[in-house]
Amino acid sequence: MDRYLPWLVLKDVPGIGNHLYKRLMKKFGSPEKIFNAHENDLKEIKGVSLKAVKGIKNLKSSYKAEKELKTIQNSGFKIVSMNDSAYPSLLKEIPDPPPILTYLGTLDNSSPCISIVGSRKATRYGLDTTFKLSYDLCLSEFQIVSGMAMGIDTAAHKGAIAAKGKTIAVLGSGLARIYPRSNRKLFEDIACNGAVISEFGINAAPDARNFPIRNRIISGISTGTIVVEAAARSGSLITARLAAEQCREVFAVPGSINSFSSTGTHALLKQGAKLVENKMDVIEELHHMVHIETEHQKIQQGEKSMPGGLEHDKYQKAIFDILEPYPLHIDIIIEKSGLDSGGISAALLDLEIKGIIKQSPGKLFYIIDRSTTPTLKG
After folding, report:
1. For residue 60, what pLDDT is reported?
2. Phi, psi dihedrals of residue 357, rounded to the nearest 5°
3. Which residues, 6 or more positions from 353, have their beta carbon under 8 angstroms from its beta carbon?
């Protein structure tokens, strides 16, 4: 666990937020290399202030970071950094991912996540709909993500647990400050059926300002966000907006036109959110997420030969190796491939024509279920 100390120390450097932390990591690869970097190299990073450079060069250790690490160890919680394989893969793609997360339970990247959020003061209709939707989606191998608040969040977690599925709670407080307190038992149940995670200090209080911040993780960790009952002004709508900004799908469950709890969800539907009546509405939109990762892993592990021309075309092979069982933006594909944009764009078009991949609005690409794709010919 001591290997996480430099991560905590770097987080304490004045002037380094999550955006800059990600840019520094992209350039140098690890906190240790950042601390050892030359000042001129640090100054080349976009957004680095002179104050931040001095902080990096002068702050080699931190009593606050050491105390935090010791508290985490003594509490039995775990840490995961963005360099670890257990770190939620989709979360790495947002502009400002938390460099480290503390968590209790087990993080699992083998199944796609979908978030379900909504009103704390939910109606019986909202609670029942959420529970069933969560239950059914878990049976289709989705992990359910929510914020462990009262109301819709609680129903979402409980539906997943009832289905013996996986669920993730993202807290707006530290792990040692369970909020709401009445959900302590749910906290423990979630940890046994998934994970409770937080980017805040272990003893951080559930301050109101923390919840909009944590909402970007709820949306960022997920392939899409479903809103069930939300007033015209609510945190759930913030999560939906963040999901859209992160190029993720936004879903909304319709309610009564006479219900105050439905004004926010109906506004989302008017703005283009996908209407959800049952799990099939979600699966039809995210059909490429279901039962596809196993096939992708088989090919990566050499259990299945690479289809036809992909063996001989470096652009198509690069794309095939990069694409995940969720949509990726073309800029990310180009960046990860290390190849020129023209060649990647041409290869994407060719693969799309051949029926191997599909494009979603916003230049997002994903592999179609191979059980329905034709054999590639060189």
Report:
1. 67
2. -130, 170
3. none
